[in-house]
Amino acid sequence: MMQILSVLLFAATAAVARCATVRDASEIPASTTQYWITQPVDHFGGSSGKTWQQQYLVNATYYRPGGPIFVSTPGESPISAKYTDGSHFTTLAQRTNGLLVTVEHRFFGASNPMPDLSGASLQFLTIENVLADFAALVKAAKQAPATIFPIPVAANSRVIFGGGSYAGNVAAWMRAKYPQLVLGAWASSAIVYGRLQNYQFDQSFGRHLEALGCAQAFAQAVREVDSVLLSKNAASLASLQARFGIPALSPSDSAGLLSGLTTAYSMAPVSTTADYVDSNVCLHFRNASSTPMDSYVAAVRAAVQQAGMTQQQLVQMGNSSLGINNYALGQVGRVWYYMGCSWFGNWQIAPPLGAGLSRYRSQLVDMAYFQTNCQKKFGSQIPVPVDVAAYNRKWFNALSGVSNVYYTGGSLDIWRDSTVSPSYGDILPPAHGSAIVVIDGATHVQDLSLNSPSDLASVQRARSTGDALVSQWLSM
User: Fold this and answer.
1) Same-domain pairing of 461 and 325
2) Whole domain around residue 324: which residue ranges?
3) What's the rounded Cα separation, in Å, for the pair 386 and 344?
4) Which helix (H) or strand (E) element contains residue 312?
5) What are the boundaries of the signal sequence (predicted)?
């Protein structure tokens, strides 16, 4: 294994070449310089010894001998220097003389273990392999840092792992599974609790609308849209699509597209000066001369215009069966869909009709809407439905009693009910050196952004709490 880890490739801009030795510690390479580590396709022997190259970036600007290493991953996105230069971990590195590393997740960006995204290739996308990738890099960084870093770094440095959203899962799992490698983890808005039928996602959006006073009108507009979508009247459907300015899709795909466009703002940070759900959704429902449907149309059209989306892009966003047989690399959505199909579900559906809950998306967005594509996209080996209960038994329960993990989440986070602190209270017992903080008025992963004068006071307090925990871990 160590022989494999020692075979490293480095790349600067577009050219890939072996890394030259840095002559002086003051010669700090740019944090956009690409580095590569050789990893097994399957850490557990299922790929006949095949290997691949995993990309990572390093910001060594603040490092001093003895400082910690802050490791992060963007999760389901390609890496970029914003993860080493533009997050709260950058601030922590400055304060602690630390070094920053961000590592690309397998099958995202340029880090591809296989030549395509077929179901046969994606079988190597398992949580075990993902964590083993990161553990291999951290182990090499501790035991042979000269093979990983472009400047001299102390051996056996302390490592803090961090991430937000799904990457927050990775951070917490790394501390749980590899405590001998990872001293502590900052898991912001970590979506660690799987739900097969995740209508709670929609209810979180509704709570935000309720706080802003437009939930009732929004839900009425959704009901009116459903009356058309369920009518099976082609002329009425075409008229509705023309009114919203969306392409001619099936009723269920039209419903999914409208839901996606209106909930998009719910992930944006709330600050002392802006709430994007208020300014981009509820604002349209405050027009006294408009009906709820008029307001819904205005909100959707404004979302399309603000994003600058073409009709073709809307088709790509809304057509759930698009690219069924397209196995080309670089499709973030396809890889994420596979993770939902085979790992954790979390299908964002409307609540069941008999649940007595308000609906903020069409009832056509149901389990069948999502799950029919799993086997079409990835083959009959994908079990339908995914065994979310088994996922939780293995991966959520693994977090119970784990020390030195800082969990954060916003009170308005649309993913809140899949975190360790859903709307009905914490679902993990307290552990030594760990903490759970719900950030009042915040949405998704707000605490990991750089400090700003417009930050909510609650966000600033959450960062301070995390900073104190990190100091505590480092002093152990």
Assistant:
1) no
2) 197-378
3) 7
4) helix 311-318
5) 1-19
- Same-domain status, 82 and 164: yes
Q: What is the pTM of this model?
A: 0.93
DSSP character at residue 193: S
Residue 258 CA from chain centroid, whole number = 21
Q: Which of 326, 350, 378 is the last residue of a domain?
A: 378
Neighbours of 131 (CB within 10 A): 17
Contact criterion met (CB below 8 Å) for 42 and 124: yes
One-letter amino acid at 117 equals L
In whole angstroms, what is the distance from residue 294 CA to residue 279 CA? 16
Q: Is the bond preceding 385 in cis, omega lying within 30 degrees of 0? A: yes
Distance CA 277, CA 158 (A): 40
Regarding whether 270 and 151 lie in a shared domain, the answer is no
How are the residues of the chain apportioned to helix, strand and coil, as percentages rounded to the nearest 5? 45, 15, 45
Q: How far apart are CA 267 and CA 446, in angstroms?
A: 9
Return the CATH number at 134: 3.40.50.1820
From residue 471, give the alpha-carbon distance in Å to each of 68, 169, 284, 464: 11, 22, 46, 11
- The Cα–Cα gap between 431 and 423 comes to 21
In whole numbers, what is the pLDDT of the chain averaged over residues? Answer: 93
**N- to C-terminal Cα distance for the chain?**
30
Q: To the nearest whole percent, how much of the chain has pLDDT over 70?
A: 95
Q: Is the per-residue pLDDT at 122 higher than 80?
A: yes
Which of residues 378, 406, 423 is at a domain's end?
A: 378
Distance CA 221, CA 237 (A): 15
Asked which of 8-12, 123-127, 207-211, 323-327 is least confident by mean pLDDT, the reply is 8-12
Nearest to 342 by CA among 370, 307, 312, 304: 370
Task: Say whether both 149 and 226 belong to one domain.
Answer: no
CA atoms within 13 A on the CB side of 383: 10
Integer Cα distance of 372 and 179 in angstroms = 39
Closest CA to 292 of 358, 214, 388, 234: 214
10 Å CB burial of residue 164 (0-12, 13-18, 19+) is: buried
3-state secondary structure of 87: strand
Question: Domain check: are 8 and 21 in the same one?
Answer: yes
- Residue 173 in contact with residue 191, Cβ under 8 Å? no
